[in-house]
TrEMBL record:
Keywords: Membrane, Transmembrane, Transmembrane helix. It comes from the Bacteria. The chain crosses the membrane at residues 12-29, 49-69, 90-106, 112-128, 135-154. Residues 9-158 form the DUF1468 domain. InterPro entries: DUF1468 (IPR009936). This is Tripartite tricarboxylate transporter TctB family protein. It comes from Hominiventricola filiformis.
């Protein structure tokens, strides 16, 4: 029961995040004109729509499971949880989505390397990772990605 309620809340947050990706993509990606449907804008928009569809399926599935459990008269006295309590328990999900939006905004302003390193460090810290070795590995991977795009693929990153 508790897992289905958490699935419902997570589905709602993911749907909002997918909608935000879909809406914010044109602001972050420049297109050639009104008729330009392919190119750099296509993949982020596809991911936004896919996230909306998958989260809608999660919402529907968890709502059906919750209504089925209530119809079977399964008592909720074991652990009643309000929406506010669920938010308090799942605050990391909201913070992670906020960090991803912050990353999108910071990417163009301060560049790939700095924004990626800062966001990665914040996410690792938020998820409870305290080993310095793992932070260093992530920073090395970010640097290798940067080198791969700029030197090998000749793609200019901000």
């Amino acid at each position: 029961m508790k897992n289905k309620r958490n699935d419902l809340i997570s589905g709602i947050f993911l749907a909002i995040f997918g909608i935000a990706i879909y809406i914010c993509t044109p602001m972050l990606v420049k297109t050639k004109g009104l008729g330009d449907v392919s190119g750099a804008i296509l993949f982020p928009r596809f991911l936004g729509v896919a996230l909306i569809i998958v989260s809608a399926a999660l919402i529907i599935e968890s709502a059906i499971a919750l209504s089925g459990l209530k119809k079977q008269n399964i008592s909720e006295t074991a652990e009643k949880i309000s929406f506010q309590e669920a938010i308090k328990k799942e605050w990391k999900v909201a913070v992670l989505m906020g960090l991803m939006i912050l990353y999108l905004l910071a990417f163009k302003t301060i560049g790939f390397m700095i924004s990626s390193c800062v966001i990665t460090a914040l996410v690792l810290f938020l998820l409870g990772e305290r080993k310095i070795k793992n932070y260093i590995i992530c920073f090395i991977v970010i640097f290798l990605i940067y080198l791969g795009f700029t030197k090998i693929l000749m793609v200019r990153l901000p």
